[in-house]
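Worked problem 6 (solution included).
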Amino acid sequence: MKKNNYTYAVILSLVLPLLATGCGSTRLTDPAATVIDAVDYDSHEIDDRSFIARTKTMELKMKDGALLAGIHDICADEQQLYVLDQMKTITSFNMHTGVQTARIDKVGHAAGEYVNPMAITCSKDTVYVLDLSDFKIVCYNTKLQYLRSIRLPGAALDFAKVSDGFLLFNPNPSEPQVIHIDNNGKSLGSYLPASTSLDLILSDKAFSEGENGNVYFIAPATNAIYLWQNGALNEAFKLNFDSQEVEAERSSEIIKKQKANVMNAFVSHNYVMTLFLAKFVTFSIYRRSTGKTESGLVNISIPYPFWPKILHGNTLIDIEETSPSKTQKTGNVAIFYELRK
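Solution. The predicted structure is:
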């Protein structure tokens, strides 16, 4: 089934307006970065069999007939899938059966509670929730039982777990975009001055974990993807769309000018895959062994849009809402796209 043609009107209903703006500047591409040319994406279709070995769907079985109220963010470990929905509820599911294992809805300012959860990630035996409004990371165990909170130096829109702490996406346009903190919230460094004033956030995620556990930062409104390595952010990939650079003082101008913009990125051993917004949400696959790129709508055989949320190991994972039928109520399904080796 072809992917739905998501229009700018739909995307605008999902973006997050920021309260502050700043001055724009220009950053040149690092000569060491791999340049990925995405062309002819408006009229091209990608056969999912060219890069997906197997597709599996799994019904998410929630207790008491509950539903996930719109997917805000997800993360996964080897045993469980964790979902943050738009009603600020966090639910965990068995990764192999889809059965709900825990669910919390802890909105508030007390210990173990959150006010405005923006993102979720997990590492080993801990689940981390980023609270934008309360400037903290709330830590839970795999049963979603409260462990502790980490106070942050300021607001953050997204985050990633790294070996010695966390990386935070800083929305303040007068400061660097990425803040590095230790496991107790102490600032260790900051990186990347903003190149464009972010009056709108046009991406699904700012951070992405690669197949081998590497952390990547998708710099907003630049189409550049940075790799966190040895305590530094280095530009690893740069997307060129029809050989046109993004030139905008404010990120909202990218929509007005209908310029392509990377929304999410997934880096595996064999591929660099990006979801990007052009006239609609489109997919690009860079094959690392050949250096060739294919871009367009992904033609898949299941009745869902192709919009993966994360890469876990060698598998892209998405969660979608099922359509009601005579025999089945509306529900949710997890979709696993295992990549070809």
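Discussion: Helices lie at 8-12, 252-256.
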